[in-house]
Amino acid sequence: MKILLTHSYFLNEDEKEAKIMKPYPPLGLLYISAYLKEHQLEHSVFDSTFSSFKEQLDYIKEQQPKIVAIYTNLMTKINVIKCVKLLKQHPDYGFPKIILGGPDITYNCENYLKTGADYLIIGEGEQSMLELSEAILNHKETETIPGIAFLKNSKVITTVSREKIKDLSILPIPNREAIDLHPYLTTWKQYHGKSSMTVSTQRGCPYTCKWCSTAVYGQSYRRRPAKLVVEELKLLKETYNPDAIWFVDDVFTVSHKWMKEFHNEMRAQNFKIPFECITRAERLTDDILEILKDLGCFRIWIGAESGSQKIIEAMDRRVDVDVVKSAIQKTNALGMESGTFIMIGYPGEEEEDIKQTINYLKEASPTHFTITLAYPIKGTSLYNEIQDNIITQPDWETSTDRDIDFKRTYSRNYYNYALKYIVNELAFHRNMPTNKVKAFKHKSKALIANSIMQISK
Fold it and tell me: Model pTM?
């Protein structure tokens, strides 16, 4: 084997993810696989999701690839580092050239290279991976290839940035045939009653939220032609027959022009498939909501992050909390499910802001909401703002940015219990009309969490 593409996400090793059981295939790797395949570059993909670290290493040992390329993000970083070190230390694996790519690479080049990686791909991976692989396999110069980093005389060398792919229609659809999708479909069916697959229609995001990383696609907006997206959807339906689609785009309805083209194309081909998506409230007009419903959308995730306008502005979200609330309520009224995201512990957040967030959730009444503690991803504006106030900086190789803590208004323990307080206060509010016993159990938990919050200030 010449080239192996892989990642280091092991579902059964992640307690939280194994509890949720909503795995999706590594779409980014499958895009790169499709691009290499289109250019007749021999390769294989080892999908680690339903596998183990040992099985991954055994596969590499057996196949002896000349190049091992590993996708890396916050969730997989620690496993990736462990893998790189083993591949570099033990001759059983044939000492392949190791290439790393993904969102965690861009602002941690030196650290990753010093763990043993030979090359890093910064930004979009298709073209860089093709050119770098061909150069390595043909023993040609690599230093002039755009969009990569490597060590030379112990110094990090970063080549000129690669220009982003402007016309996404040149990209082949992900090479889903490279892996076994059956475990994904059956897992979804078993745990959630219906199967789901992912589709990407755009790259980049034009917005400026301070906590969000733009390390791969940048602060940009590029879209695949609507016709090609519909062709991909039809192919997925014919080949795999998923019950639903998850559009992974950051802001699915960012372009109303594209949405109307997509709507027209779906109608012209007399095609419909249930799907869910993420978007921003101000990009959900009444017309767009009707289009989404007509297309088959059953759930819209609408970002807010906080019910406090003060915190929303601190995040540079550039949206009015009342607009978000209205968008959620309109989504509900049309019979679609709504979802929203909440972030606790953002710099400057006070108790009054948390109370406003609880009121926002009660009034907006989203069908679902997720909640997390704010953490600074290196390279983001949030990280740059708080880096002088970091109070916990764990060892880089054995931790992720999620483990970094910084000076907040109150202690981290306060915000940890604020998460529990919000979840249980909302559960009390939702259960009160129909199940008073369950409601008061949640109220008791909320009161206990709130008491610990006050002690932890």
Answer: 0.94
CATH of the domain at 222: 3.20.20.70
The amino acid occupying position 383 is Y
Distance (Å, whole) CA 362 – CA 365: 5
Q: What pLDDT does residue 14 have?
A: 85
pLDDT at 271 (0 to 100): 96
Domain boundary among 132, 158, 184: 158
Query: Which portions of the chain are predicted below pLDDT 50?
Result: none
Q: What pairing do the DSSP bridges indicate for beta strands 222-223 and 3-7?
A: unpaired
User: What pLDDT, on a 0 to 100 scale, did the predictor assign at position 219?
Assistant: 86
Q: Are 302 and 215 within one domain?
A: yes
* 63 and 148, same domain (yes or no): yes
Of 322, 344, 366, the one marking the end of a domain is 344
- Token pair recorded at residue 29: 């790797």
pLDDT (0 to 100) of residue 17: 87
- CATH for 146: 3.40.50.280
Backbone angles phi, psi at 423, to 5 degrees: -60, -45
Report how far residue 350's alpha carbon sits from residue 355's, in angstroms, rounded to the nearest whole number: 9
State pLDDT tens for residues 325-339.
999 999 999 999 999
Per this entry, what is the length of the chain?
A: 457
Query: DSSP assignment of 119-168, as one string?
Result: EEE-S--HHHHHHHHHHHHTT---TT-TTEEEEETTEEEEPPPPPP-S-G
State phi, psi for 406 to the nearest 5 degrees: -135, 165
For residues 6 and 26, give the distance between their C-alpha atoms in angstroms, rounded to a whole number.
9
Q: Going by C-beta distance under 8 Å and a sequence separation of 6 or more, which residues neighbour residue 54?
A: none
Which residues constitute the domain of residue 113? 3-158
The reported pLDDT for the residue numbered 168 is: 97
Joined tokens for residue 176: 């889903």
* Burial class (CB within 10 angstroms; exposed 0-12, middle 13-18, buried 19+) of 405: buried
Q: Are residues 284 and 233 in the same domain?
A: yes
Q: Is residue 244 part of a domain?
A: yes
- Among 203, 280, 273, CA closest to 245: 273
Measure the CA angle with vertex 93, ends 87 and 97; round to 5°.
60
CA distance 152 to 32: 27
